[in-house]
Amino acid sequence: MNITKKSFGKDVQLITLTNKNGLSLSVTDLGARIVSLRWQDRELVLGFDSAEEYLQKDSFIGASIGRTAGRIEEGRFILGDQTYQLDVDPATGHSLHGSSPSFEEKIWHYEITEEEQETTVIFTTTSPDGEHGFPGNLKVEVRYTLTQDNIWKVTTKGISDQSTLFNPTNHVYFNLSGDVTQSIDQHTLWLNSATFAPLREDSIPTGEQVAVQDTPFDFQTPKTLDTVFTSDFDQKNLFDGIDHPFFLNETGLDRTAAYLISPDGKIKVSVATDAPSIVVFTANFGEDTPEMHGARLSHHGGITFETQIAPGAEQFPSFGTMALAPETVFETTTEFKIDAREE
């Protein structure tokens, strides 16, 4: 495995791993973030060219997200017999992605480990007791592994000295065309999910789990994403796309939870996870999109597979639990396997 390091600005580093097949993974200690996933000359994910751009334009893209991915209504939750109040976004009145700035703007410690079949960048940080209102000193580790058989693996661990909430994810966006000016509408998606969580207008889950059958959100048979974008489905209309938790029919790293195929059929990314749900977001940015690599990002220019416990679990027990007991290790792993035909 070839390993290179260089400055990424803001006193952070860009670490690039390249396997024997020519698949390269670039990550940075700013936000324990994926910056690039490249097959030969084709970029497969959205990203910027410097740390400064992430901080100025969108610090969530590609980042490790925490302490809690998604929104917490009014930033309030109950744990045991105590109510906690988090920092909230003044525009919405809710907490988003653990309140900001959080994991996505921290400079993480990192080290690199090499084995014969894979290389791993291990990122670590601590979220102190009381940060944004969360209880407990939380130690977090995020491992990015690139294997020789074209798997990018993300493993996240956490341990706290007090009861707290922990529901991390990775906020990578895929666009398998390699062209950020192209929408993902002609990408083919398959998703192993029979139910999703409807949202209110303010993106807070209603608490229901609704069947995808007979809706545009049914990807149990693979189809192109334009079938959603051109539909008149009420949940799509609220956000001009998908921004919803999908509950997985099966979990485990030996099961495929989702796959995405490029419009030309040359690239397929398969997702496997031990998490119970995936938040799919289709970059519903409208005309207000950032510039990437000298080009303007398209509306619907990317898609996320945010593997996690469904947002809303802090108030809807049927969604699962994001409560973490003291001195108990939380661990979750997601794998992205890249199958590619020669360019």
Automatic annotation (TrEMBL):
User: If you read the UniProt record, what top EC class would you report for this enzyme, in one word?
Assistant: isomerase
- Does the keyword field hold DNA repair? no
User: Record's Gene Ontology CC terms?
Assistant: cytoplasm
For the keyword Lyase, the answer is no
The record places the active site at H171 (proton donor), E306 (proton acceptor)
Under catalytic activity, the entry for this protein gives: alpha-D-glucose = beta-D-glucose
The record, for InterPro entries, names: Ald1_epimerase_CS, Aldose_1-epimerase, Aldose_1/G6P_1-epimerase, Gal_mutarotase_sf_dom, Galactose_mutarotase-like, GH-type_carb-bd
Q: In which pathway does it act?
A: Carbohydrate metabolism; hexose metabolism
Q: Which residues bind beta-D-galactose?
A: H171, V172, Y173, D243
Q: Which UniProt keywords apply?
A: Carbohydrate metabolism, Isomerase
Any Gene Ontology biological process: glucose metabolic process
Q: Which family does it belong to?
A: Belongs to the aldose epimerase family.
Report the protein name in the record.
Answer: Aldose 1-epimerase
Q: What is the lineage of its organism?
A: Bacteria, Bacillati, Bacillota, Bacilli, Lactobacillales
